[in-house]
Amino acid sequence: MKPASARTLLRLVLLVQVAAALLIAWALARRGLPAWGALAAGVGMVALVRLVINMNNFVMAARAASDTPPEYRIGPAARLRMLAEEFRASMLVTSWHVPRGCARMTIHRGSPRVPVLLVHGYGCNSGYWAHLEPLLDREGISHASIDLEPVAGSIDDYAPLIEARVRELCAATGAARIAIVAHSMGGLAARAWMRSYGTPAHGVARIAKLITLGTPHHGTALARFGPGANAAQMRRDSAWLRALAAAETQDSRARIVSIYTHHDNIVAPQDSSVLPGARNIAFGGVGHVALGSNPRVLAEVLHILRELQPAMA
Questions:
Q1: Nearest C-alpha neighbor of 155 from the set 196, 115, 214
Q2: Choice among 65-79, 94-108, 200-214 with the minimum mean pLDDT
Q3: Angle CA 80–53–43, to nearest 5
Q4: Mean of the per-residue pLDDT values for the chain?
Q5: Span 45-60, pLDDT tens digits
Q6: At what angle do helices 35-63 and 76-92 cross, to 10 degrees?
Q7: Cα(32)–Cα(227) distance, rounded to whole angstroms?
Q8: Of the candidates 255, 247, 216, which has an alpha carbon nearest to the alpha carbon of residue 233?
Q9: DSSP letter string over the chain?
Q10: Which of 47, 110, 232, 259 is the most buried (most CB within 10 A)?
């Protein structure tokens, strides 16, 4: 039996949440509360539970946090804005974008820009890139997304999926090289692809730039709470992560840009995203999921993509 996709799993979670909201509303209506008020209370209570879960991630991440440099420390007002942005991003991703997400390819004919492959992170799918894709279209950048399945599979098993998608993107655009933008676990999957297909005709030779967003290059303390082989591989300094690092060359590291946030609520310690030999770009006041929608972060991604020289076959 084929494992359920992230799309299916989150649709089921949504159904459970809707059922919970309706059950609460029914119970309150039976106690005399007006129907509209009971329904609003039911939805509000489910949203409150989601908020508590989201905020708890910040609490758990804080226990394993790395030191925040003085220039990235934020005050109470900025922290509240960050919490609100992360909650909004999490709600949109898990309740709207991923349940509707489907891998697709958009080709801008005649564009000289290096095409981009978008690789999502743990427990997500291509719907995560709903905010970046319109910006790539505005820039005239051909792009494709991918759904990494099974959701709880080994990261190594995603490498052939990425290889197939890279070939499709190169064939559709005529490009000799592509760039990859990857969030969280997706950055590790892209590095695993570079290791597995790192021959002159594959992998490193075809990657103009790998941009990772909030990728736990050295693992995260919160991975021990996640199910699946991929979560185990993302534990702090796991044997898998050490083997991945040992197989990389200076050339492959030089092609990587690691964008991360000192306030990541999933990757902890946050400096786990700092990758020696790569270009590391830090942000402050941004949460983990919000890295895919924060205007400052997306502007930096586009700036890096603009620096790439066309590489057509």
A1: 196
A2: 200-214
A3: 90
A4: 95
A5: 999 999 999 999 999 9
A6: 110
A7: 42
A8: 216
A9: -PPPPHHHHHHHHHHHHHHHHHHHHHHHHHTT--HHHHHHHHHHHHHHHHHHHHHHHHHHHHHTPPPPPGGG---HHHHHHHHHHHHHHHHHIIIIIHHH----EE--TT--SPPEEEE--TT--GGGGTTHHHHHHHHT--EEEE---STTS-GGGGHHHHHHHHHHHHHHHTBS-EEEEEETHHHHHHHHHHHHT-STTSGGGGEEEEEEES--TT--GGGGGS-SHHHHHTSTT-HHHHHHHHT--HHHHHTEEEEEETT-SSSSSGGGG--TTSEEEEESS--SGGGGT-HHHHHHHHHHHHHSPP-B-
A10: 259
CB 154 within 8 A of CB 185: no
**Strands 178-183 and 116-119, bridge-based pairing:** parallel
Calculate mean pLDDT across residues 194-203.
Answer: 69
State whether the Cα torsion 261-263-266-269 is positive or negative. positive
Q: Are 259 and 297 in contact (CB under 8 A)?
A: yes
Residue range 59-64: mean pLDDT, rounded = 97
Buried residues in 20-30 as b, exposed as e (16+ CB within 10 A): ebeebbeebbe
Domain residue limits, the chain: 1-313
**Domain range 1-313, CATH architecture:** 3-Layer(aba) Sandwich (3.40)
Q: How far is CA 165 from the centre of its chain?
A: 18
Write the single-letter amino acid at 105.
M
More confident residue, 108 or 4: 108
